[in-house]
């Protein structure tokens, strides 16, 4: 282990502004192949009716913001759904793989833009990182988890997955 | 010469936060397999040691261990024994039994069953060599941060066994990385005098704690720090920012609590865990531990 503390003059950090530190982890296709290796994917058109949306909201306790479900039927069995949940500052695109029985097989975060958390609201704080080298690492204070033991972003992902499971039960299983 | 493989990075919602893993220098198919395996290990730690999951092993221990010894998995046993060792080494500055104070203040949910004894502490937790845990009086263990650090370590060790060039594992601010050269980790400390605080680290873990930035999020200065000084039952002072660098992430996370509570007096325990701390308070930045004040550790 080696460690050395530095105070780097802000002016010495070359400015290539990436304030929100967006990170793309996986494309939809990459997520599909990770979850269902070797399978082919047939995109389905699914638009939730008013009744379905209401039933999903009731079952999951989560708002349905988009009636259009991005859904693929998997050749080897199961379903692949692309979705977005509300993060603290931006939407978080996620992918959820369901097996034949509708159980969650895998969840992947496709993009994440929130490494700075609450601090992005403070322009002075943000300014110091505007030149952060690509690939450099930022340690935040350990994030605070609310009473459910989750940060806001991870709670919204959990809520989103619950909504997709309700969507499966109400609108997909009978497909 | 084969082309160098691009780094593969993925993120999943685990441990109540977003867990990020990056691997450099493995063929992408293998990297993805290794990352999936590492996430599986994190998920297992979460299932075992979540305070919030009614089905977790820790919840069963919290509900039953005051009545009879409860057998636990090797993972839970390892974290518990390390937590108790740290509690002893820090004379209770790190105490995994402070959940009642957090429950009282609404930062953790109350469990079913008997409420904890108000005078319960880590000294009332007994680990037996037969792999069981028993409580001397009703109490609630919360392994939150230390289990998160342990999960990072488990994921890291699993990935390291495949010998990639670089590894990066992060769970909600607990970070462990390795690679061929030192990397800068910028600290989200308050901005002062035109200089950005950073640590250059190589093969190390980092965890940071601080409070002022959290006020905005939970809108209560009183709750702005979830760090309780076990000696007083009061929240730690709010104007301190602490970064701990340690070989293991489990230690880095746990030691932030010790430094938050004890400040400069925590140097001996930092030394014991080969850890360094960088603390910002009213007096400016202070280096503590192994090689303070230069902060360069072998």
Automatic annotation (TrEMBL), chain A:
It holds the Pfam family FMN_bind. The keyword Transcription regulation does not apply. The lineage of its organism: Bacteria, Pseudomonadati, Pseudomonadota, Gammaproteobacteria, Lysobacterales. GO terms for biological process: electron transport chain. Keywords: Electron transport, Flavoprotein, FMN, Phosphoprotein, Signal, Transport. This is FMN-binding protein. Residues 87-168 form the FMN-binding domain. One of its GO terms (molecular function) is FMN binding. The keyword Glycosyltransferase does not apply. One of its GO terms (cellular component) is plasma membrane. It comes from the Bacteria. Residues 1-22 form the signal peptide.
